[in-house]
Amino acid sequence: MLLITCPVTRTDELVADRRIRSVTSHPTHLAMAVECPACGSVHVYRTGRRWEEARRRVAESGTARAATAAATAASARAAHELTRA
Ligand SMILES: [Zn+2]
C-alpha cells in the first residue's frame, strides 16, 4: 500500500500495490505510474530517495558543485512535473 495525493481531487488516497501500473528506474529517481482510485486516471509519482543517494555519491567523488547544480535542476524539474501531473 502507498499513500498518494491526487492532483485532481487534492485528496490523500491509500492505494493498493496492484494499482501500480509501472515503476521506471531513472538514474536519479524512480517514477511510479499509479492508477488513482479518486479520479480513475494514472498519475506519475517520483521518489526522491535515490536522487539523494546519487547526489551524495557524486558529491563524494569531488565534483560537488556541478552535481549540486544538476541535482537542484533535476529536483526543480521533478517538482514541476509533480504539480503538473
Ligand atoms: Zn487522481
What does this molecule look like?
The protein is α+β, with helices and mostly antiparallel strands. The chain has one domain (2-75): PH-domain like (Roll), CATH 2.30.29. The chain is built from 2 helices and 5 strands. The protein has helices spanning 49-60, 64-84, and strands at residues 2-5, 12-15, 20-25, 30-35, 42-47. α1 runs antiparallel to α2 (64-84). The longest helix has 21 residues, at 64-84. Bound molecules: zinc ion.
Radius of gyration, CA atoms, in whole angstroms: 15 Å
Number of strands: 5
Q: In percent, how much strand structure appears in the residues? A: 25-35%
Report the structural category: alpha+beta
What is the strand and helix layout of this fold?
Blueprint: E1 2-5, E2 12-15, E3 20-25, E4 30-35, E5 42-47, H1 49-60, H2 64-84
Antiparallel strand pairs: 1-2, 3-4, 4-5
Helix pairs in contact: 1-2
The structure holds zinc ion.
Quick summary of this structure?
With 85 residues, this protein is α+β, with helices and mostly antiparallel strands. The chain has helices spanning 49-60, 64-84; strands at 2-5, 12-15, 20-25, 30-35, 42-47. A hairpin with a 4-residue loop joins strand 3 and strand 4 (30-35).
